[in-house]
Amino acid sequence: MQIRMKSSLICYGLLGALFCPALMAQEGDSWTYSKETPEQHAAKMEWWNAARFGMFVHWGVYSVTGGEYKGEMPTNSAEWMMNKARIPIADYKTENVDKFNPTSFDAKSFVLLAKEAGMKYIVITAKHHDGFAMFHSKAGPYNVVDATPFKRDIMMELAVACREEGIRFGFYYSQCQDWHHPGGLGNNWDDTIERVSFDEYVREKAVPEARQLLTEYGPIAIFWWDTPRDMSQEAFDSLHSVTDLQPGIITNDRLGEEYAGDHKTFERQIPRKAPVGVDWEVCMPISASWGYKKSDTDFKSIETLIRNLVDIASKGGNYLLNVSPTGDGTLLPQSTERLQAIGRWMKVNGESIYETTASPFGDLEWGRCTKKEFARGSTLYLHVFDWPADGKLFVPGLKNKVEQAYLMDNWNAVETQQTEDGVIVSLPAEAPDEIASVVVVKVHGPLEVAKVLPAPGKDGALVLLADMAYIHNNEGSEQASVREGRRGGPSYISRWSDEAAWVEWSFKTDQPGQYEVFAEFSTEENSGFNIGLSGNFQPVGVQATGGRRDYTEKMLCIITIDKAGEYTLQIKPEAGQWNPLSLRNVTLRKK
Ligand code: FHN
Fold first, then answer.
1. Ligand 1 centroid – CA 95 distance (Å)
2. CA of 152 relative to ligand 1 center, distance in Å
């Protein structure tokens, strides 16, 4: 791994400020800014990791028509209407900009609603891809104060309200796509534009606006870049260095293609497993569209929203839930009632979300777990989605002595029983909360959790997923590693081209007998390998499935398990017969 250290001295005319951004380290092809020590980074992220829950707001002049143009509803999210309907700048001005007058907007009540929902920070679109500034931009008159009948600086009103209410405040800024400025990217339909260079757009608009947002709106906690595109090093440096204006500001990973930022961003999907060694956030619209779209009725249920929050927190991530103010500056009732319902749940159970860290357990059949660790012991928050009919909740692998256990809802104590395989919690017949009931379990000493091996279910089936596998010999290999599925699809062992790499799953069973072994995979060519239990291999060959994304499930072989116990199932390429596989899972089905 080659590291080139490069420091660049950048001087800005307007402020005459001399920024000496940090050293920029290039590791391989990826540029990251090593501006902080790991300790400094952790200290900066402390409030953010404690917050766990924030509000995303997509609001712009597209809300005037709810995404509609000339009686049509363009595809995609409403904030993309100008692009999808190829709306000329002049039309967008007359149909949307000139009519933007959200007189019902009240920043204080908006921020209070976020607080009521239990949200600890707000990130709002200061400028989206349409190039329209929802603040009094000094880079040009294409902004809410100079170009609309509303004439108020929405970002300023929200910044003040957030400060008064103790809510951290941040901006979303579309640094590359700008369908209004002649140098912005993305507008390939309006031929009235006399093009200038992208760097000119960055110099004339993006950097001055970002700097204005970071110097005139008080303490800004987050700068949320979006849709990175290739750009010159000068453009990248000048944009990145502006964030130095707000010490401690948190930025996401979307400034540049290879820019790590302070946290990884997942969009619309929750990863099955948390990314390792990075802070991360899932951003998701409360309905289908980010911006207000009058045809969008696809609101997520309250159950889905609360369980998403719990699921993400149980993996150590943050949930940035998006709302879409309408043309009059208010939220639809569907959004308000969902935020208030989440708030009611958080009022009772917020302790099990805020300041927690990821679950120490593997998959839990009945729900999720978050935790807090202290010098003397730990507090486990068991979020029970599926309340056990028999009143027995099994916590697999927990070895610690339980000191106290009670229901979060009413503090009623519950009994626990230590077993060799974990702890059984005895619960009342009725779940306190039908969406997610929290059982608090306080244990003594450092957490001790035995690794729980997957085992066949009552139906005798055992699904071994890609992200449950251990991959041998894949150090340094781009291939044969577990990848997140596209758009939230199942994870898979990616294009396993390296025939020296091989895979194993450990599992246990108390059901001896014969099992059919199935695999869900894709391969562009026929491929041969060996499969077996703990070294007892048999050769297998599979046919090409038509392409890397053409998955199929095939039975590979039959294995015999003589007695209950722990086993490893191994798949090893056969030299000379192996061709790259993408492998989603292996399933053992008892005959
Ligand atoms: O194109 C944008 C989209 O409009 C929206 O802002 C989302 C939010 O994360 N970001 C981009 C799509 O990834």
1. 23
2. 25
pTM: 0.85
Does residue 531 share a domain with residue 505? yes
Ligand 1 in reach of 178 Cβ (< 6 A)? no
List, for residues 251-305, the tens digit of each pLDDT value.
999 999 778 899 999 999 998 888 888 999 999 999 999 999 999 999 999 999 9
User: Rounded distance, CA 560 to CA 554, Å?
Assistant: 18
Q: Which mutation among 290, 321, 487 tests ligand 1's pocket best, with the greatest number of atoms within 8 A of CB?
A: 290
Residues 120 and 146 in one domain: yes
Q: Cα separation of 488 and 503, whole Å?
A: 23
Whether residue 502 sits in one domain with residue 382: no
Q: Which two tokens stand for residue 26?
A: 């290039």
- What are the structure tokens assigned to 418, written together? 């230590």
Q: Domain count for the chain, please give it.
A: 3
Amino acid at 475: E
- Other C-beta atoms closer than 10 Å to the C-beta of 360 total 17
Distance 79 CA to ligand 1 centre (A): 9
We report the CATH number of the domain holding residue 481 as: 2.60.120.260
Phi/psi of residue 45, nearest 5 degrees: -85, -5
In this structure, the answer to whether residues 182 and 59 fall within a common structural domain is yes
Question: Which residue range is the domain that position 165 belongs to?
Answer: 34-348
Q: Which residues of the chain have pLDDT under 50?
A: 1-32
Please indicate, yes or no, whether residues 95 and 195 belong to a single structural domain of this protein: yes
pLDDT value of residue 470: 86
Q: Which of 62, 76, 77, 282 to mutate to test the pocket of ligand 1 (most atoms within 8 A of CB)?
A: 77
| Structure letter (DSSP) for residue 61 | G
Q: Are 210 and 175 in contact (CB under 8 A)?
A: yes
∠ Cα 39 43 49 (to 5°): 120
